[in-house]
Write a structure and sequence with these properties.
alpha/beta, 10-stranded mixed β-sheet, globular
């Protein structure tokens, strides 16, 4: 499902070596700790995938400024291409000597964001395949957690590893060990999606988790590259996956959704499926409406328009092959995390009649009790949580209190 992960690696690696290096050096010199970052789990659940070495990686800081995004899912940690049980980026860059990805992480954290790291993916050799047991697999991943002071990690279990029963047992065992040894660590497990929810190997993986007594924050499926046609097919797969979770773990529907995640592919998929911004909105509405735990996508490297926009009907690792503005899809992750992304157009409000100091009310913003806004020349204070309820409207409950003219 990650067939585009190896494009443009040479150029990207060189660019990465300098990206964010100043922030990294400053952090090291000052002794600042990445532990100062304290995002909510919702942000780690919304973090889109970003390949920092491959596929012409975009500048994370620019994405943050343009979209409001705060969290990134960096991919992928693999076994060394030559074999062994030590973590590398993409099988080629040892974590132990890395400074390039560390500099990117530091730059993100310097802007108030954070990262999760994903292990596995579609290509390369996975540590579950090369390490001897769950303990040694966990020890390899612990090096990654410790080096980058991670608060979140993603197990992306795909072909061909998830067809290897012993390797999956080691990966699940390692995930359980890491969960126990790193209190509060956000752990997601991502696997292939099918119309049925997930296939035979995905179901075997869930059975392995049940047998080992392991429950992550979520099990996410990737409903693409499997004959899907837009959002309706994806939400149907998510509904079916919910039934699988209920059957496997004995959960009720709500509990299953609270442990379920969506990992989509923006634009044109590897197999020629198309997922537009409208499809993402539909799935986002489904995910939030069912109180799902995770909403992410592959990938930020692709969250920009090709030239020409349809990329001549081809799939790319560096653009989406659909008409879009840069970071259109990232803004859906921002919405899932509960923060309204910046807008390039001013909100539609009546002109003020006085000098208002409170920020203008925005239909898309989320407000909580005590927040103040300006609207129609008056200052208004929210009594409780609200979104898209115009100040001055009666509504069902009258959430806004008029504090008078500015």
């Amino acid at each position: 499902m990650r067939r585009l992960r190896a494009l443009l690696s040479g150029v990207a690696t060189a660019a990465l070596a300098t990206a964010g290096l100043a922030a990294f050096a400053a952090q090291q010199a000052s002794g600042a700790s990445a532990d100062a970052t304290a995002l909510s789990d919702r942000w780690y659940a919304a973090a889109p995938y970003l390949m920092p070495h491959d596929n012409n990686p975009p500048d994370a800081g620019a994405i943050m400024d343009a979209s409001g995004l705060k969290a990134f899912q960096l991919a992928f940690i693999l076994a060394p291409n030559g074999g062994g049980c030590s973590p590398t980026w993409d099988g080629t860059s040892p974590v132990s000597s890395d400074t390039a990805v560390a500099s990117v992480i530091s730059a993100i954290r310097a802007k108030g964001g954070d990262v999760s790291v994903s292990i596995g993916g579609y290509g390369g050799t996975k540590l579950g395949q090369t390490c001897s047991d769950a303990a040694s697999t966990a020890a390899a991943y612990q090096q990654v957690i410790t080096k980058y002071q991670l608060k979140a990690i993603d197990f992306d279990l795909e072909e061909p590893e998830y067809e290897n029963t012993a390797a999956i047992a080691r990966e699940i065992g390692a995930a359980k060990i890491l969960q126990q040894n790193n209190p509060g660590l956000y752990v997601s497990v991502t696997t292939a999606g099918t119309a049925d929810g997930t296939g035979w190997f995905g179901k075997q993986m869930l059975n392995e988790a049940k047998a080992q007594g392991f429950t992550p924050n979520n099990f996410s499926i990737m409903p693409f590259d499997g004959g899907f046609n837009g959002a309706a097919a994806q939400t149907s797969a998510l509904t079916n996956f919910n039934s699988i979770l209920r059957t496997t773990f004995g959960w009720d529907e709500a509990t299953a959704y609270a442990h379920e995640g969506f990992s989509g592919m923006n634009g044109r998929s590897d197999t020629g499926e198309y997922f537009t911004q409208a499809d993402f909105q539909t799935v986002l509405d489904f995910a939030t409406g069912h109180h799902m735990d995770r909403f992410t996508f592959w990938s930020l490297n692709r969250d920009r328009q090709c030239t020409p926009p349809d990329n001549n009907g081809k799939t790319s690792g560096t653009c989406s092959s659909v008409t879009q503005s840069d970071w259109d899809f990232a803004k859906f992750s921002v919405k899932f995390a509960g923060v309204t992304p910046p807008t390039t157009t001013p909100p539609t409000t009546p002109p003020p009649t006085g000098s208002c100091t409170a920020a203008a009310w925005s239909a898309g913003a989320v407000y909580t009790g005590g927040d103040t806004v300006s609207y129609g020349g008056h200052t208004w204070q929210a009594k409780w949580w609200t979104q898209n309820e115009t100040p001055g409207s009666t509504g069902e409950w009258g959430v806004w209190q008029d504090l008078g003219a500015c």
